[in-house]
Amino acid sequence: MTITRFAPSPTGYLHVGNLRTALMNFLIARKVGGCFILRIDDTDPNRSQESYVKAIQEDLDWLGLHWNRLERQSDRLDKYYNSVSDLRNNDRLYEAFETSTELELKRKKQLNAGQPPVYDRSALKLTEKEQHSFRQERGNGVWRFKLDHQRITWCDQILGDLSIDCSSVSDPVLIRQDGQFLYTLASVVDDLDMGITHVVRGSDHVTNTAIQVQIIKALGGDVPQFAHHSLLTDTRGDALAKRLGTLALRDLRKKGIEPMALLSLLARLGTSKPVELRTSMDELIDGFCLSEFGTSSTKFDESDLYPLTGRYLQTLPFSAVSSDLSALGIPSSVAEQVWYAVRNNIETLNDVRFWWAIFQDGAEPLIDDRDRTFICQAIKLLPSGPVDNNTWKLWTDLVKSETGRKGRELFMPLRKALTGQSHGPDMSIVMPLLHVIKVRDLVE
Predict the structure, then answer these.
(1) CA 94 to CA 107: how far, in whole Å?
(2) Please, which residues have CB within 8 angstroms of residue 385's CB and are 6 or more apart in sequence?
(3) What is the spatial distance between Cα 358 and Cα 425, in angstroms, rounded to a whole number?
(4) pLDDT of residue 442
(5) pLDDT in tens, 198-248
(6) What pLDDT is recorded for position 242?
(7) How is residue 15 annotated by DSSP?
(8) With a threshold of 0.85, does the pTM exceed it?
(9) Cα gap 389→335, rounded to integer Å
(10) Cα–Cα distance between 115 and 270 in angstroms, integer?
(11) Could you give the strand order of the β-sheet that contains 173-175, starting from the edge strand earlier in sequence?
């Protein structure tokens, strides 16, 4: 069975970069009826917050990325202790006591000498007496994994054949001074224990993958298939990482972005295929293929989400949005009429509020100087009595007959005068919804 996982840290809100990773892992599993695990990386008690755990689940639920299992790394500490014992028994872990200042000094010396800034393993040369002395002076040290200085190769499902020379990589710290297990160890142990078969993540993890492959083998496990997707950039090609905080999923939700618009964009972003709006999760799953993703940087433009959202909303019947319209304060007696009037002229549900304000309170008339006399004449010709879907045609036919105007010269000035907009819903539908026509005040 294909088993994938998404392992966010509950130290902040999910953003579009997180979502790209989550979506790919979700779709890979769902494509073949596999298992998708949500694994909360909460081994850091000082930074992890329950509010973020809840927010992560809310965001994934909103998107329809439902998980088969929920795991928390804080519940699995005994697993990590057992693995640490195995690594120590096999001489793959060693304690190091350098301070950050000492490490930085070593790094600078290596760079000045034209050498790669790799940890020199001086801790391996310490005697038991020296180790004891350091513990007395500095407390516990960190625990590093002793890499085999060999080349690690694998076939990446996106990047192709990759090779990392581990002699050019520092022995990674797996346990901090305070005893906290770091991501590299916890992730490997969990992947092995949970039978993860495919790991999809950002290309900034490539070197980390080589390290994890060695740890996996040291623990006697099977190496999963890896795929590293490109990182997001803005429209100019600059790294988007610094802006990801402004692209939190909950903020996009507040702006009115629809889940399927966001998922449709990210499911094709980075491929040579055009973005196609999907209206269901099944469509999204059927159209997904990991091998179609390229290796070049991927440009993300938030503005692309709005027309996609608009197109998605056009497909929705009133029953799908009735509660949303109620929340916007639109009375149930006219909500359906309002929806079918405006749904082809909005980009988000929030835009319905704009049109409802025009219907309810009237719009500030937009009248060109050359049309002022025409508008005054036309308003005086407005039919009296109840307004229905035939009123607009009756009125414009009468105005055409009286003024001689036709086509755009007839319809556009009237639309702008009544709605304050040069575009919008069909005016035959708008007329019955206009509770207030402010242009009357200008001509009477």
Answers:
(1) 20
(2) none
(3) 12
(4) 65
(5) 999 999 999 999 999 999 999 999 999 999 999 998 888 887 765 666 789
(6) 58
(7) B
(8) yes
(9) 16
(10) 36
(11) 93-96, 142-145, 173-175
